[in-house]
Amino acid sequence: MEKMQLAGDGAVAPARRRGLADEVADRIREAIFSGAYAPGAPLREVELSGVLQVSRGPVREALRALEREGLVHCAWHRGTVVTTLSADDVAELDSLRGALEDLAVQQVIAHASEDDLAAIDKAAGAMENTTDPHTMVRLDIAFHDAIFAATGHQRLAAAWDAIRCQVHLFLLTRIGLSTDGYLDCVPKEHHALAAALRARDTEAALPLFAAHRRHAMDVVTGTPAPA
User: In this predicted model, what pLDDT tens digit does every residue of 96-122 receive, in sequence order?
Assistant: First the structure.
């Protein structure tokens, strides 16, 4: 077991293993986002420590950090599993994301610079010719990252950052249920969103963003598409 080191004045010095736990969390998060661990999949400390070639301590710390992000769920009688979003989780996440995104749209339209809009356009363009659904989900999240960055609103961006991993998990749930037409429609939708922001047209942009969120929600909730 690693011994705690003390600084010269007797204060506790930063422990190196904290950085290791962060790296382990990054690796596990990446595995979840790549589809290696689907929602509901068990995450066993012993197996992870063997694969990652670290002791169980950093793995345990990493899993706690991922639980705070909402990516995993730890229960004493079941161990740790990748979070499976319940109907209530999905509804709460959608309502919160919608509130944040509506404010973000208004802020971008009112305050974004040309460079900000160019970054949003670039994020939409990156989706072209993508052939892997998991890669498309990453690019989807990156697009919305660009929007919140363009708001110039630090607390709004921080609020998005607090739920972005759960939104990523929601989108993974969406592609786990169906990818029919997904790779074709997502770039088109995001180009339309970027165009509405560039036109600084709030009345057009807000309904487009709402429809974009609703398409994914309909798949996850099993709501039939309108005739």
Answer: 999 999 999 999 999 999 999 999 999
Angle at 188 between CA 184 and CA 193, to 5 degrees: 150
DSSP sequence for 125-178: HTTTT---HHHHHHHHHHHHHHHHHHT--HHHHHHHHHHHHHHHHHHHHHHHH-
DSSP characters over 67-101:
HHTTSEEEETTTEEEE----HHHHHHHHHHHHHHH
Cross-strand partners of 72: 82
Residue 130, both tokens: 């993508």
Burial class (CB in 10 A: 0-12, 13-18, 19+), 16: exposed
> Among 12-16, 105-109, 217-221, which stretch is predicted with the lowest mean pLDDT?
12-16
How far is the CA of 146 from the CAs of 42, 152, 190, in angstroms?
A: 33, 11, 12
| Sequential DSSP letters for 186-209 | HHHHHHHHHHHHHTT-HHHHHHHH
pLDDT tens-digit readout, 124-154: 999 999 999 999 999 999 999 999 999 999 9
